[in-house]
Amino acid sequence: MQVKIADSWKNILNDEFNKPYFKNLAEFVKNEYQKHTCYPKGKDIFAAFDYCNFEDVKVVIIGQDPYHGVGQANGLCFSVHDEIAHPPSLINIFKELEADLGIPYPDSGDLSRWAKQGVLLLNATLTVRAHNAGSHQKKGWEQFTDAVIAQISEKRKDVVFLLWGGYAKKKGAKIDKNKHHVLTSGHPSPLSANRGYWFGNKHFSQTNEFLKTKELSSIQW
User: Fold this and answer.
1) CATH architecture for residues 7-214
2) What is the similarity comment for this entry (predicted)?
3) In the annotation, is 158 catalytic?
4) What is the full per-residue pLDDT of the chain (221 aa) written as tens digits?
5) Do 181 and 169 form a contact (C-beta atoms < 8 A)?
6) Domain ranges of the chain
7) CA 66 from chain center: how many Å?
8) Angle, CA 180 vertex, CA 179 and CA 183 arms, to 5°
9) Within a 10 A sphere around the Cβ of 101, how many other Cβ atoms?
10) Number of C-beta neighbours around residue 151 at 10 A
């Protein structure tokens, strides 16, 4: 797998790409894409980074795995291509957005409009085999995305991290909370949301309120 990633990230992550674990990961991903149907498309594996330069990151949302259904994954966590039915977690995200900020439920589930404003939509694992959730976990992606989070924490300040669910909270363990603003809640999946751990978290309005205190432009969710 040749790493094609935006230059601003290439400079930050170059050491990571040269480590043995990443070379093994790249070989694994290359073989998987040759032998199986995998998502997202190869050109979209690093889409989260391509839409959002390192210097422009204002908000980080951490997901777990890409969607593994046909045509869903587009390289941005929780996001799907236009014309694709919204998965349950995305439906609940949009419902909370509507309740929090009064933004009407959108037709499009493509969240690239957020990414272009400085929202890094980062899955912990960047690839998956079709119809096989978690199939590319524990192959090295988690170490890579931990390094991404650590670099943002170290080299940036006043970034809002939205940690939804236990998995994201563990991924956020290395965030310097003295430099950054961390908001946590349950996961937007129906299992968590229906137990009262998601709805009403007001993360979207709280994010914008924080950005305004730092004289940064708010996100047009």
Assistant:
1) 3-Layer(aba) Sandwich (3.40)
2) Belongs to the uracil-DNA glycosylase (UDG) superfamily. UNG family.
3) no
4) 457 798 999 999 999 999 999 999 999 999 999 999 999 999 999 999 999 999 999 999 999 999 999 999 999 999 999 999 999 999 999 999 999 999 999 999 999 999 999 999 999 999 999 999 999 999 999 999 999 999 999 999 999 999 999 999 999 998 999 999 999 999 999 999 989 999 999 999 999 999 999 999 999 99
5) no
6) 7-214
7) 9
8) 150
9) 12
10) 16
Instruction: In whole angstroms, give the CA distance from residue 116 to residue 197.
Output: 28
Q: Which two tokens stand for residue 150?
A: 């650590």
Element (H, E) at 147: helix 141-155
* Residues, the chain: 221
Identified catalytic residue from 7, 65, 82, 110: 65
User: Tokens at residue 17, please?
Assistant: 């790409």
